[in-house]
Amino acid sequence: MTGTTPPILQADDLVRRYRLRQGLFHRPTMVHAVNGLSLRLARGETLGLVGESGCGKSTTGRLLIGLDRPDAGTVCFGGKALPAMGDIRWRRLRMRIQMVFQDPLAALDPRLTIGAQIAEPLEIHRLGSRSEREGRVEALLADVGLRTDHLRRYPHELSGGQRQRAVLARALATDPDLIVCDEPVSALDVSIQAQVINLLRDLQARRHMAMIFISHDLRVVRLISNRIAVMYLGAIVEEGASEAVLLDPLHPYSRALVSAVPRPGRRRSRTILQGDPPDPAARPGGCAFHPRCPVALPLCARFAPELRPAPDGRRVACHLIGDHGGELNKEA
Ligand code: SF4
């Protein structure tokens, strides 16, 4: 985030746990979906939230826009605490915060035309006269690269890429300040993914919106993000400018993720992580990454590292990075 500009979005120490019963005769287990997560987002900035499936990215996205309530911690939007869902203030605020999900077919109503669905938020928030709304819908359609004849079509008559464009047009209808995109291109063909990413990048720059871009795919995240936050088991383990995180990842988990991304013309030895993929219902003690970490020390199983300042304005949660070194010497 730049300088002293107040953030449009600020989350502090978010915690979200669920009880999960895996069978009729099993005791419920506690799933730690989000575990003490804090972040800031400036106006006009895009933060990529990346990590494996089950790391809590989607739950974080829902907490940030108030679709889910944290068990602890706070979310502030525009300097004010996010009101509870259903509260009249939350409904008003929803005009300024929108979310785009992975599956555009599930996000659209099969019984309504595309035109009716793009107009819906304008009608709900009573924005403009009927003719103004019609004009706005046509302008939005052009903005996302759809034609006016798409207005009268139903979702099943559009391709996957066109449906995601329609979802974007609907999300942009109220001119939001913040848009949270949860895996918005992972259900699309690779060639269409690039088109939708370019569109999102272009729209975000023109409208100066803040954006949280959630994805398991670092290749996609790097195309659009100013900053990247790498998540592991409900917490951010490294956060910083995209270039710094991608060119010189500091946390061992970020290093493994980055090493798996093919880079044309460059050879990088890939780090294959050992052990089981992260399970939020069986969160290890100490550093949650220690069972898979190739450079773990004995103390990593006992003490959880905090997210602390590191080189290049980054924050990293690892006993081996930044001022954790002092802690290490004390504990050794
Ligand atoms: Fe690996 Fe220890 Fe750092 Fe965790 S704290 S990432 S286990 S070295």
From TrEMBL:
This is ATP-binding cassette domain-containing protein. It holds the Pfam family oligo_HPY. Belongs to the ABC transporter superfamily. CDD domains: ABC_NikE_OppD_transporters. The keyword Transport applies. It comes from Bradyrhizobium vignae. The keyword Nucleotide-binding applies. One of its GO terms (molecular function) is ATP binding. Involved in beta-(1-->2)glucan export. Transmembrane domains (TMD) form a pore in the inner membrane and the ATP-binding domain (NBD) is responsible for energy generation. Keywords: ATP-binding, Nucleotide-binding, Transport. Signal peptide: none annotated. SMART domains: AAA (SM00382).
